[in-house]
Design goal:
Elements: H1 27-50, H2 52-56, H3 62-68, E1 76-78, E2 86-88, H4 90-121, H5 130-154, H6 157-167, H7 172-177, H8 184-233
Antiparallel strand pairs: 1-2
Helix pairs in contact: 1-4, 1-8, 3-4, 3-6, 5-8, 6-8
Amino acid sequence: MTRKTPIPTPTPTGTTESVPKYPRPSTKAGITVGAFGGFIASIAFIGIMLCLPVIFNVPAGIFLHALGLSIIKPVLINSGSGSGNVIVALGDIVNIGLAAFGLILAQGVIVGIILGIITNKIKRLSITSKKKGIGFGLATGVIAYLVLFVSVILSAYPSLLSNSLTTYPHTIPASLQGLHNTHTAIVQSAFISMIIGYGLFAYLVYGFILGGILTWANSVYRFNLSKSAELEKYR
């Protein structure tokens, strides 16, 4: 009895090569999707970090302000109250905030691009299911948290936060809370441990969104590829 040879499924290019079960997008597509996913996830990350001042009852933007001080040195102006307090010039407040936003977005996009390239280039790490994609995203978030967040928080960030608490503008909300009269060393030590714990949650959300977007992009790519192959078969 002769064995029938299965008819290969035509590919979108019209050849008779069979379509892989889990086709992978090109490297360029991986970079594009990774950058897009990293950008969207970074926006969510920033939103979570902006909630920190509300939770800790400090002026809005204080933690991002501290991060921005790592890039831009503020111009200090005497408050004129005779107490020796200083504030930051308004133009510098905006620039420092934008620097912090840009730094977080750049970090998120770069991490997203790296994950997009890895999942497209390494066959064993290709995203073949929702569970795998979300898992890779969460793992990426944890790695980014340990490498990019914890290392900075435990090294350079304490001094940046101390400077931020000292030089942050004395707006009405800040004055009402009396933050500038608080001993910065006590505030700093109390915040660092809470920031580390809260940062883990923020990076897990970042990784979840990034993994979800990459999973969705791979699903759309495979769906379009299978439909193209099916249509080509009937031509």
